[in-house]
Every structure is written in structure tokens, then in C-alpha cells.
Amino acid sequence: MLNWANRLTVIRITSVPLFIASLVYYSPERKYFYFLSVVIFLLACLTDAMDGYIARKFNQKTVLGSYIDPIADKLLLMSGFLSLSFMGHLPDSMRIPAWVTILVIARDVIILIGSTMIFLTTGRLKAQPLVIGKVTTVFQMMALFSALISLPLRFQMIVFIMMGILTVISGVQYIRMGGRLLQPS
């Protein structure tokens, strides 16, 4: 049975196709799709904060939640970065440079490959987020939001650069943690 924290995570997962669809169907004549995409994205980000709070506050941490929460984050973030980088019909002010998207995806692919190697080598894997990973997720959400609401380019670039630095640092930290997990005890 799903607890409330896991239900919020499932809501975030199900919001991803709605978010993508609202961007796909956006046009200057159908501006309501733009507003819908902003609302869906904000609600998805809110569920990310709420599910963690509820899990800790009401002792609803579960093994299921430890796996589906980062999956929900990755689905939302990757779909957002890919959409805002490569959907050609979106206004230039909403576009995210490809280097930002490549950096985010590269980090996540490296973490996924490392996690798979740890599981295949040791036979176990405990999903354990680092604080820097959580901070990076917040900055990635901020980067998407800054593009989504078309902040001036200079502000977007500041957020993109800060997010990029955190993405690299967190990626290195996860690689180091993975290396320690692969060391013989």
C-alpha cells in the first residue's frame, strides 16, 4: 500500500507527460498551454519538497520511496531539459542551451552506470542521496523554471552556470562514493 509520501511521488511521475504535452501543444495562439506547463512544473516541484518532508516528519520512509523519488526527479528534470533545449517551436527566451542539458544528462547517466556496476558487483544497492545531490536537484529545478518563465538571459546564465558547477561537483561526489562502495571491506 502506498503511503502519502509515495503517493505524492507517483503524482510527480504522472505529471511528467502532462508537462511535456503542455509544452508540445504550446503556441502563441494557445498561450494557456504555457501557463499550464508552468503550473504543472511548480506543482511537481512542490510534491518533491512535500514528499520528503512527509516521509521524514511522519516516519513514512520506505524502500520503495527511496527508489521512486529519485526516478520521479530524473523524469521531471530530464524531460524538462530535453524539451526546453530541443523543442524548436518554443520562444528563444525559453530555450536552454544544449551544453546545460548535456551536462545534466551526462551526470545522471554516469550515476546510473555506476549504480548498475555496484549492484552487479556487490549484489546490493542502497539508494542514498547526498546533500550536494539534493542541492543540485533544487538548482536544476531553478534552471528549468528560469527558462520556463523567460527570465532575462543574464539571470538565466547565472543560474545555468551555478547549476552546472553543482552538477559537476555532485557527479564527482557520487563517483567517489561509488568507488568506496566497490572497495573490498
Number of helices: 6
- Radius of gyration over C-alpha positions, nearest whole angstrom: 17 Å
Low-confidence stretches: none
In whole angstroms, the N-to-C terminal distance is 36 Å
Shape: globular
**Class computed from helices, strands and strand pairing:** mainly alpha
Described by strand count, sense and barrel closure, the largest sheet is:
none
DSSP strand tally: 0
What does this 3D model show about the protein?
The chain is mainly α. It contains 6 helices and no strands. Helix 4 packs parallel to helix 6 (153-182). The mean pLDDT is 95.
Helices and strands, with pairings:
Elements: H1 4-24, H2 32-57, H3 63-86, H4 98-122, H5 131-148, H6 153-182
Helix pairs in contact: 1-2, 1-3, 3-4, 3-5, 4-6, 5-6
Question: What are the salient characteristics of this protein?
Answer:
mainly alpha; 0% strand; globular; 185 residues
In short:
The chain is an all-alpha fold. Helix content is 78%, strand content 0%. It has helices at 4-24, 32-57, 63-86, 98-122, 131-148, 153-182.
